[in-house]
Amino acid sequence: MINMQPYQNPTYFMLIALTLLPIVIANLYEKKIYWYQTLISFGFLLLSFGGIKWHQGIALIVYVIFEIFLIKLYFNYRSKSNNSWIFYLTVFVAIIPLIIVKVTPAIYGGQVSIIGFLGISYITFKIVGMIMEIRDGAIKEFKLGQTIQFLLFFPTISSGPIDRYRRFVGDYDNQLSREKYLDLLEKGVWYIFLGFLYKFFIAYFFGTLLMPQVAQNALTRGGISWWLVAYMYVYSMDLFFDFAGYSLFAVGTSYIMGIATPMNFNRPFAAANIKEFWNRWHMSLSFWFRDYIYMRLVFFIMKNKLIKSRITIANLGYLTLFLIMGFWHGITWYYIVYGLFHACAIITCDAWLRFKKKHRQQIPSNRFTKAFAIFLTFNTVCFSFLIFSGFLNTMMFHHIMK
Amino acid sequence: MKEKIIEILQDLTGSEEVATNLDLNLFDTGLIDSMATVQLLLELQTQCGVDVPVSEFERSEWETPNKIIAKVESLKA
């Protein structure tokens, strides 16, 4: 059987265009054909997780059954009582598979865990979000069918954007008016074409044409060189356009299906500080971390009056958030340093914002300071991506081997 | 209730504008961040008696003083 990874080649897009056509027509007549939607979802999942990747398909099925069973169990428990330890335990059990998948390569020298599959982290984020909302009493009903549709929604399964259960189910159950659907359809098609430009032209130029040459030159020079600086910018551009392009495909496809999956990027390089950057970069992930880790931790500390100083609480929250994000990217020194770097950057940013608030009269604020702020933020971010790229690691090994 | 909420917001943001411009976007202007949001939720809990869990907090529904007032009043009712 053939295997096809999402949004990689023209055939995949042709298939999307063809198979989504009945959904488009139905929506224009203000109808939903749920059985057909489920059928093509299944088809696309089979395409990505079947054939030579069949073992990933098995892992996915086992994982989803296990997690849905866990969610249902917790939902039943929560409708009767609400013990904090049971909640922590449930969250922990839910992330065990992800932990195994992340830790295995670190222990066994890069070997991939057999329980892993493409997109396991993104499904795990959705599940943990659900468990937390069940705990808060925000999810009042457990719907098996919708939960499966939500977790396995094929346009976003491999790399997000990370949707929220209540938002998704709202869209899934609701029939849009023709006018509203047309608006969504138009945007969806536009996003997919913008995605082509981002991924297959701009990211191709930076990542495939420029990057290997620049990397080679930086390695030959060794140490800090202009080539290394060039690598930093080329890598950052490739990272953004590749991921933003992919995200546009995922969001565009969702829109065509009548599901308004949240956007992932909002001109991140126009951010005037690091805090703003995280409101614009990989938004569905950073908002997930903000809502489910940072805010809940801060809430817990403040409510129980564990720490007095608000500044200390905020900084502790940032450190926790970015360390977890670092470890989530993978257990290597450069991902963890990347996390720490951003924690320090945002702590510094907060301190500066407090200082600025106090000395509002003395500090100039005009077009030039704004431009300088954007320039500084852009370079800080690009430097963090250089750490993230792992290229410094490659350079070190290259040096040792010589 | 309205006065109380505005007072909480003034304390939280250190800004007088929240009392004069009730349609001021608190997040876009940077007056409130995630940290301040949590403080706001805790203040609303102790001073107004409304219990809002973090996961019920949808930014777009709480972004101006007017929206916060309306939200609290609807939760009170």
Automatic annotation (TrEMBL), chain A:
InterPro entries: Ac/AlaTfrase_AlgI/DltB (IPR024194), DltB (IPR024024), MB_O-acyltransferase (IPR051085), MBOAT_fam (IPR004299). One of its GO terms (cellular component) is plasma membrane. Pathway: Cell wall biogenesis; lipoteichoic acid biosynthesis. The chain crosses the membrane at residues 12-29, 34-52, 58-75, 87-108, 114-134, 188-206, 243-261, 311-329, 335-353, 373-392. Belongs to the membrane-bound acyltransferase family. O-acyltransferase that catalyzes D-alanylation of both teichoic acid and lipoteichoic acid (LTA). D-alanylation of LTA plays an important role in modulating the properties of the cell wall in Gram-positive bacteria, influencing the net charge of the cell wall. Catalyzes D-alanylation from DltC carrier protein. Coiled coil: none annotated. It is found in: Cell membrane. This is Teichoic acid D-alanyltransferase. One of its GO terms (biological process) is lipoteichoic acid biosynthetic process. GO terms for molecular function: acyltransferase activity. It comes from Liquorilactobacillus mali. Its EC number is 2.3.1.-. It is a multi-pass membrane protein. Keywords: Acyltransferase, Cell membrane, Membrane, Transferase, Transmembrane, Transmembrane helix. Its main location: membrane.
From TrEMBL, chain B:
The gene is dltC. This is D-alanyl carrier protein. Pathway: Cell wall biogenesis; lipoteichoic acid biosynthesis. Gene3D superfamilies: ACP-like. GO terms for cellular component: cytoplasm. GO terms for molecular function: D-alanyl carrier activity; ligase activity. The modification O-(pantetheine 4'-phosphoryl)serine is found at residue 34. Pfam families: PP-binding. GO terms for biological process: cell wall organization; lipoteichoic acid biosynthetic process. It comes from Liquorilactobacillus mali. Keywords: Cell wall biogenesis/degradation, Cytoplasm, Ligase, Phosphopantetheine, Phosphoprotein. 4'-phosphopantetheine is transferred from CoA to a specific serine of apo-DCP. HAMAP family: DltC (MF_00565). SUPFAM superfamilies: ACP-like. It comes from the Bacteria. It is found in: Cytoplasm. Transmembrane segments: none annotated. Residues 1-76 form the Carrier domain. PROSITE patterns: CARRIER.
